[in-house]
TrEMBL record:
Name listed for the protein in its UniProt record: Putative PurR-regulated permease PerM
Classification of source organism: Bacteria, Bacillati, Actinomycetota, Actinomycetes, Streptosporangiales
Family, similarity comment: Belongs to the autoinducer-2 exporter (AI-2E) (TC 2.A.86) family.
Annotated membrane topology: Multi-pass membrane protein
Keywords, alphabetical: Cell membrane, Membrane, Transmembrane, Transmembrane helix, Transport
GO BP: any one term: transmembrane transport
TM regions (residue ranges): 49-69, 75-93, 105-126, 183-208, 237-262, 268-287, 294-319, 339-372
Primary localisation category: membrane
Region spans: Disordered: 1-40
A GO CC term attached to the entry: plasma membrane
Length: 383
């Protein structure tokens, strides 16, 4: 039989459906509701009023932040000083830890020594000040009698009625109000100083106890690729700051002990209190030792001219020994800053934050010098 012819089935293609007329589409499409208030305008993204409002809000926010910083200035200073003291006391704590002492025990010993210093300072300063104030109050009637017996004052009183006006001022209650206001102001100053001191001690204890965890947390904020180098630089900076604070405290202690011994040998009254004043003022860079020397020499001069001259000669000689022998030996492993940079940093720090700024300026300058030496200069050398 003859084979039937094979036919190839072509893929079936459906013909496009006929397009309905436009009037039908228009009739079937859902109509948008007509805007009863007209078509909406352009977005306000580039509206000048909105730009001005945004800029104004940004300015107000910046002013509010600046006002908050100014208002909380004293709190910020307390926090910075507490962290500074914690870094300074940390080397002593780590030294005790290396002797197989727990960190809590080491912190207790070091912090107990700090509290003992403040207690001794108060016991040495308060009694002589109280005694001198009581002596002055007891001598006031004698001073008044001497003034009344002075012929010059009598002549001035006859011409200008000075004593009469002074008596009227006293009897009218003006003097009582002034004295009461002064006492209230002095009490407020003493209370604020005591509260600030207690707060500073508490913050220092907190920072000293949690210093390792604070360091670890801050280093975790650095990208992982740079964390190791940042940790090495950070540890070096913290070690330098701690060494500077510890060295400065050691130099002040040496100055206080030497002053106490010399004043005791010379027979100056209140030798311990004056030595503590020298130790505290010696913490201030550049001018602290001079301030302490002037104060102590002035007090000794009031007792005797010979004692004042002897104290001035002693401080003149001791400051040379401290500047050229004690300070370089103590600070040789703490900070590496050129002398000119040290002076400039202390001047800028003192101008910005006073005594606190002068204390912080030198270790901050050392930290900046380390970053420039280890980061900036190598990077510039590779370009």
């Amino acid at each position: 039989m003859p084979e039937a012819p094979q036919t190839t089935d072509a893929p079936a293609t459906s013909a496009p459906a006929p397009r309905p007329p436009s009037n039908v589409l228009a009739a079937e499409a859902p109509r948008e509701p007509a805007a009863p208030y007209g078509r909406p305008g352009k977005p306000l993204a580039k509206n000048p009023f909105l730009l001005g409002l945004t800029a104004g809000m940004g300015l107000l926010t910046s002013l509010a932040l600046a006002l908050a910083l100014v208002t909380s200035y004293s709190v910020i200073v307390l926090v910075v000083v507490a962290m500074f003291l914690a870094l300074g006391l940390n080397p002593a704590v780590e030294s005790l830890q290396r002797r197989r002492l727990a960190r809590r025990g080491a912190i207790s010993i070091v912090f107990g020594g700090v509290i003992l210093f403040f207690v001794l300072f108060g016991l040495a300063i308060v009694p002589p000040v109280t005694q001198e104030a009581a002596s002055f109050v007891g001598a006031v009637p004698g001073y008044i009698q001497e003034l009344l017996a002075n012929p010059t004052l009598k002549e001035l009183d006859s011409d200008y009625q000075i004593l009469t006006k002074l008596g009227d001022y006293i009897t009218s209650g003006g003097l009582a109000q002034t004295v009461a206001g002064g006492l209230v102001g002095a009490g407020a100053v003493v209370f604020n100083a005591f509260f600030s001191g207690v707060t500073l001690l508490v913050l220092t204890l907190y920072f000293l106890g949690s210093l390792p965890s604070i360091k670890d947390y801050l280093f975790k904020l650095v990208p992982n690729s740079r964390r190791e180098r940042t940790r090495a630089l950070g540890d070096e900076i913290i070690s330098g700051i701690g060494g500077y604070v510890a060295g400065n405290l050691l130099i002040s202690v040496i100055a206080g002990i030497v002053t106490w011994v010399v004043l005791g040998v010379l027979g100056v009254e209140y030798a311990l209190a004056l030595a503590l004043v020298v130790a505290v003022t010696d913490l201030i860079p550049l001018v602290g030792a001079t301030i302490g020397a002037v104060l102590v020499s002035g007090v000794a001069l009031l007792q005797s001219g010979t004692l004042g001259i002897a104290c001035a000669i002693f401080f003149l000689v001791y400051q040379q020994v401290e500047n050229y022998l004690i300070y370089p030996r103590v600070m040789k492993r703490s900070v590496d800053v050129a002398p000119a940079v040290t002076v400039i940093a202390a001047l800028f720090g003192g101008a910005l934050l006073g005594i606190v700024g002068a204390l912080l300026a030198i270790p901050v300058a050392a930290a900046i010098a380390l970053i420039i030496r280890e980061v900036v200069i190598p990077r510039q050398a590779r370009l």
